Amino acid sequence: ENNYKLHDESIMKYMLCYDGTPSSDHAVEELMRIIDSNSTSTVFVWVGYSVPIDSFSHMTEGTYERTDSFQQTEARRSEANSLAQSCEKRLIQHNTTGFNIETFVEVVADIGERIVEFAKEKEVDVVILGSRELNFIERLFLGSVSNHVSQNAKCSVLVCK
């Protein structure tokens, strides 16, 4: 029996956090293994991206001047939308008769914290995300999204490698 089915599968809400990495691809595969294609569960596909702090420079004559990093921000938004569409397409191919798919692409300052907030807002039963397997120094300076989510989410969390 699958340990991630906490109660009646027909009402489960899953949050799939996707960033295009191999570990998040594995998270998609794991979700497709867990969820019954005939269920009426809901899958929230969530793609978050951060933007450079200096995307807008100082205000001049009542308008913000765009900096070079504005183009980087637009590129990140486009990439995030493409990732979300790609993930949704994979899920639709698996979805033969029923689970609902809702896709969200958000710009965020703190990805881990936003995942926790989103899961609470949507009353998610299980958050599914990948792990980048950072070394000690990388975790120290960059932090670990999967660790933050597993420590702070009020629901079950499945971290895939």
Q: Characterize the overall form.
A: globular
Distance N to C terminus: 21 Å
Q: What is the string of helix and strand elements?
A: EHEEEHEHEHHE
Strand content: 15-25%
The portion of residues assigned to helices is 40-55%
Order of the strands making up the biggest sheet: 5-2-1-6-7
Q: Mind telling me the C-alpha Rg?
A: 17 Å
* Helix-and-strand structural type: alpha/beta
Report the mean per-residue pLDDT as an integer: 81
Number of strands: 7
Unreliable sequence segments:
55-59
Q: How can the largest sheet be summarized?
A: 5 strands, parallel
Report on the structure:
With 161 residues, the protein is α/β, with parallel strands linked by helices. The protein is 41% helix and 25% strand. The protein has 5 helices and 7 strands; from the N terminus they run E-H-E-E-E-H-E-H-E-H-H-E. The protein has helices at residues 22-34, 68-94, 111-121, 136-142, 145-152, and strands spanning 13-17, 42-49, 56-60, 63-66, 100-107, 126-130, 156-160. The strands form 2 sheets. The protein has a 5-stranded parallel beta sheet with strand order 5-2-1-6-7, with helices on both faces. Strands 3-4 form a two-stranded antiparallel sheet. Helix 3 (111-121) packs parallel to helix 5 (145-152). It starts with 12 loop residues before the first strand and ends with a strand. The relative contact order is 0.22.
